[in-house]
Target: Rhamnulokinase
Amino acid sequence: MPTTPRTFAAVDLGASSGRVMLGRVGPGTLDLTEVHRFPNRPVTVGGTLHWDVLALYRGVLDGLRAAGRTAGGRLDGIGVDGWAVDYGLLDATGSLLGNPVHYRDARTEGAAEAVHAVLPADRLYAETGLQHLPFNTVFQLTAARGTPQLAAAERLLMIPDLVSYWLTGVQGTEITNASTTQLVDPRTRDWSPEVARRTGIDLSLFPALRGPGDPAGELLPEVLAETGLTGPVPVTAVGSHDTASAVVGVPAAGDDFAYIATGTWSLVGRELDAPVLTEASRRANFTNELGVDGTVRHLRNVMGLWLLQECMRTWADRGDPKDLGPLLAAAAELPPLRSVVDAGDPAFIPPGDMPRRIADACLATGQPAPRTAAEFTRCVLDSLALAHREAVAQARDLSGKEVTTVHIVGGGARNALLCQLTADACGLPVVAGPAEAAALGNVLVQARAAGALDGSLAGLRALLRSTQRLDHYTARPGAAAWDDAAARIGRAR
Model:
C-alpha cells in the first residue's frame, strides 16, 4: 500500500441536500472535508412532484470543481451515493426522458394493490425480502405503465447511477441500490425473474449489475474541462444507496451492534450475513437490502427527522422561521413523553402541514396536542426515540442475535437530545458519529478498490474508530415511562 495519503471525492446526494466531500486516505489516515453543499429542492409541475435532477448535477459539477481546487487539480477517484427507489428513464440515444418523479408523489396510490393482485404480499416478500413501502420501485413502475415516457425508455438508471453515467458515459446498475427496487432476490444477489414475470416489468431496462468497488468508468473529457480536473480520473461504484455507504461508516467493533442511520429517514437494523425472509420479519416490515462485501442490511425504515424538517418548513412558510439550536435547547427543558405519535404512520409521508398532522394524531390517541414549536419538537424527538426502541428490539429478536450497543450515524448523530433519548428508550449505550458516515463509507470503498487501503469491513471500521470523533451516551433509568408511551399509541411490546 502507498504510504502517502490519496485523495478521493465522495458525491453524497440526500433527499434535502447534496454534498461533495474530499477524503484523504492512507494507513492510519482518514480525513474528510466538505468542499461544496447544495440544496435538493423538488419541483411540482402539472400536479406531479419531480426531482430537479439537472440542478443536482450542476451541484455535483460545482462540487468536483471545488474538490479539484482543494486537491491541486488531481483526484485519485470519485464515487457517487444517493437515495434509493427513484430512477431516470433514458431513450435510445441515452437522453433523459424528463425529470425523475419524487417517491413522495401520489402517483403510486393503488399501485401496491395492483401488484399484490398478481403477486401476493407474502410471496413478494419471500422473493425479495423487501419491506412494504408504497413508493418502492416496483410500485412506481407499475404506476408508470402505459405512460409515453416508459414506452419510449430503453434504459432505467437509479439516481446515483444516472449521475455516474453523466460523469463517465458508462451505464451500470449498482447492486445495493438495485436491491431497493423490490426486483432483486437477496439470496442470489441477482434479479428475480419471478417478480419481473408476474409484474410485467422488463428487466432489460436495467444495465448490467455491478458491485461496490467495481470500476464505473472515467470522467469524460467534457467533464474534465468543466471541472478543471486533470485526467484520467476513475469513477468507482461504491455502496450507491447512501444507507449502504453509511453502514460501512459505522465504527463498530464486533457484530453485536444495531445501527441507526439518521437523516430524513431513520434506518434501524442489523448487518447480517444472510437475509431474514420469515413471516415474522415481513409482518414487522423489515427489509433485506444488500450491503457491501456480501452483507445484508436487515432494517426497518422509520420516518426520521423528516417530521421535524417538515415542521420547520411549515413554520418558515408561515413567516415564523425557527433556528434549530435554540429550538432543541427549549425542547430539552420540557417534560418527557407528554405526547408521542407513531413515527411509522403513513399519514406523515407526504409533504404538507406536519404540525397539524402531529397534533391530530395526538388528539386521536387521547393525548394533549403540542402547541408551541418546542413542544412539537419534543414530541417528534420522543416519538423517534420510541420508534428506534421498537425497531432495535425487533432487529434483535428477528435476527436471533443480541444487541449490546446502538450506533447512531448520519445527521442525527449531531442531535444530542435525540441520541440521549434513544439511549434511554433502548436501555442501551449509544455511540454517536460520524455524522458524515455515508461519505466516509463512500471514500473507504473507493480507497480500498484503489489499493490505498486493504482489509475487511472490520479493518475499515477500526480506521474509523481511530480517526473520527465519537460521542457516548449512557441510558438513564425510566423504562416504565417508555412502556407507557408505547402503549398510548398501540406500539407496546
